[in-house]
Amino acid sequence: MKRLARFLVGMMGLALAVASDGAFAATECNGPTSGTIVGGLVVNAGDFCILDGATVSGGVQVNAGGILIACGSVINGGLSANGAANLIFGAEEIDCAGDVINGAVQISNTGPGALAPAPSIALERSNINGGVHLRGNLGPIAVASNKIAGGLFCTNNAFDLDNEGLSNVVTGPIRCKFGD
Q1: Which residues of the chain have pLDDT under 50?
Q2: How would you classify residue 30: left for phi > 0, otherwise alpha for psi between -120 and 50, otherwise beta?
Q3: pLDDT score, position 116
């Protein structure tokens, strides 16, 4: 009888593992990271994450006080940041290749910036397959040479966007003002 009970408990555990659809906890990033990351990536307060040629499945979340630099990486599942210190994607000034983001980009309350003279947010030379939403950010924002499928939306940012003299291709509405 005990043997049958152990067998049934084991089978239930196996069934739950299969039914969980491979759910993974997000990987915390603090330092240089490359390769394949499954289950998402999180950058916490005080973390300085550099994605270099990484492929992330499950999206990226940057929490208050985190810094993320992404170069030549693919993010499947979008980007969400609230209160980040700095976010830099594909910045030519630091020889950083553009990125591909498959999913929405939601950035709020970022800045005023910890990596001066860099803007607090730089979205450059990237393909973004989802809308870009910038809300309540406190520092300078550069959005330049991107292909954005899904629209570009700004609300209550301290600065107008800077396109650095380079145009973006945006499919969808643009509800942001670019400075001179």
Answers
A1: 1-23
A2: beta
A3: 87
Rounded distance between C-alpha atoms, residue 32 and residue 16, angstroms: 35
> Tokens representing 159?
């600065």
Which tens digits make up the pLDDT trace of 91-121? 999 999 999 999 999 999 999 999 989 999 9
What is the amino acid identity at position 163?
N
For residue 116, CA distances in Å to 93, 95, 112, 125, 174 come to 13, 17, 9, 20, 28
Whether 64 contacts 45, CB under 8 Å: yes
| Domain-wise residue ranges, the chain | 23-175
Cβ within 8 Å of residue 173, ≥6 positions away: 151, 152, 153
Query: Going by C-beta distance under 8 Å and a sequence separation of 6 or more, which residues neighbour residue 147?
Result: 126, 127, 128, 168, 169
What local confidence, expressed as pLDDT, does residue 24 receive? Answer: 52
DSSP assignment of the chain: -HHHHHHHHHHHHHHHHHHTTT--PPEE--EEEEEEEES-EEE-TT-EEEEEEEEEES-EEE-TT-EEEEES-EEES-EEEES-SEEEES-GGGT----EEES-EEEES--S-SSTTS-SEEEES-EEES-EEEES--S-EEEES-EEES-EEEES-SS-EE-TT---EEES-EE--B--
